[in-house]
Design a protein that fits this description.
There is one protein chain. The chain has twelve helices and 14 strands. α7 links the parallel β10 (193-206) and β11. It has a five-stranded mixed β-sheet, sandwiched between helices. Strands 2-5-4 form a three-stranded antiparallel β-sheet. It is globular, with a radius of gyration of 22 Å. The longest helix is centred in the first third of the chain and has 25 residues, at 102-126. α5 crosses α9 (272-281), α7 packs antiparallel against α11 and α11 (325-331) packs antiparallel against α12. With 380 residues, it is an alpha/beta fold. The two termini are 27 Å apart.
Length: 380
């Protein structure tokens, strides 16, 4: 197997998991000495996503490593986890530098109030994130229609899909499309492909263990079971995904597209500075406004990536991914305890290995499930 990075990128080489956690603890201490208070979203933005760190020779940590380091610092009393009430009646959860003297206490209190206010504002806007992400995907499909896409919905262009043929889905897909392509050699039309789409426009970095992933896979497997000859291509669109999820997608036959942007619409009469303050002070620089004046698209996924990869993905999904429906049915349950979820993903990987061998797939990856000693017992 190839040597793949499990814990982070950039920075010092040759670190094991404990080494990555120790380095993350040091960088977190430096962050809180400077910022004094920060919500989890800001911590991840600064230490997991800020590409300027690479240019400085500093590492970017994967979220499971950062979470373990945060847990350690809270347990040691270096950082406190607090629930900060705001004037708007909301509560913002923050990590705060432990108090170290009267003069520092005043600065920490001021930082906590400011970060609490900003994060409460972010949470208020977050109620609109889901609809914003789905609108970007649907508008992108409309623009890409000339490349062979046709809506599955009889009511709205590329809207929610609750049923495909005889397959009744447990929860609607965010979008669905029929993709009609021509054979590259004969130029004859190929059978229509069912593109099943879920959109997760969240701060969360998606891992193979997240229930959001398995909601899509379960729905797509149900469709494949009902229509064995139908080419089915599950597509997961998210803000950020861990590399393990891409490895899993390649093995099982689905596609992951990360936008690296969080699309947002704003309440009426919101001043532009309100969004800029979130970008600048919480480091949420990927917040991307979607409006009539500022339309956004991800059409490259539909005009370039899918036409190139969908046929191979559909074949792999039919032979491998669609045969594992019972595991998706368990893992899509949001109520699973973290340790149960970790075990279930391990069982899925074992079953996937057998399915890949049966399908005679050469060189599968199979490194996408967290091992027990990698899991800080957090449902990330």
């Amino acid at each position: 197997m190839k040597n793949r990075s499990h814990h982070g990128s950039g920075g010092p080489r040759g670190l094991d998991r404990l080494g990555w956690v120790a380095r993350a603890e040091a960088d977190l201490r430096a962050l809180f000495e400077r910022e004094l208070a920060a919500p989890h979203a800001e911590v991840e933005a600064r230490l997991c996503e800020d590409e300027s760190r690479r240019r400085q020779g500093l590492p970017l940590f994967f979220p499971h490593i950062l979470q373990e380091a945060l847990n350690n610092l809270v347990a040691a009393g270096d950082i406190e986890k607090v629930q900060h009430p705001t004037r708007a009646g909301r509560t913002a959860e923050l990590y705060v530098l432990a108090t170290t003297g009267r003069g520092r206490r005043t600065a920490i209190t001021a930082a906590t109030r400011r970060k609490g206010l900003l994060y409460a504002r972010f949470l208020h806007y977050s109620t609109l994130f889901g609809a914003a992400g789905e609108s970007v995907v649907r508008d992108s499909l409309v623009d890409a229609a000339a490349h062979g896409y046709q809506s599955m919905s009889t009511h709205t262009p590329f809207g929610e899909v609750r049923k495909i043929g005889s397959a009744q889905l447990q929860g609607a897909l965010d979008s669905g499309a029929w993709l009609m392509l021509m054979h590259p050699d004969t130029h004859l039309p190929l059978p229509a492909q069912a593109i099943t789409i879920e959109v997760k426009n969240r701060r969360l970095h998606l891992y193979p263990r997240h229930d959001e992933v398995h909601q899509l896979l379960h729905k797509a497997a149900v469709v494949q079971d009902a229509h064995p000859e139908l080419p089915v291509v599950p597509v997961l669109i998210c803000r950020r995904a861990h590399s393990r999820l891409f490895w899993m997608a390649k093995d099982l036959g689905f596609l992951v597209h990360q936008t690296r942007r969080q699309f947002v619409t704003l309440p009426p009469k919101t001043e532009p500075r309100m969004l800029e303050e979130l970008r600048n002070e919480l480091a949420l620089t990927d917040l991307t406004l979607v409006s009539r004046e500022h339309p956004k698209r991800i059409e490259g996924l539909f005009t370039t990536t899918l036409p190139k990869q969908s046929r191979l993905a559909a074949a792999r999904w039919k032979a491998v991914g669609s045969t594992l429906v019972k595991y998706y049915a368990e893992l899509r349950d949001q109520r699973l305890k973290p340790w149960v979820r970790t075990s279930a993903v391990g069982q899925l990987r074992t079953a996937a290995e057998l399915a890949l061998d049966h399908a005679q797939v050469a060189d599968p990856i199979l490194e996408w499930a967290l091992e027990d000693d990698d899991d800080p017992d957090q449902d990330f």
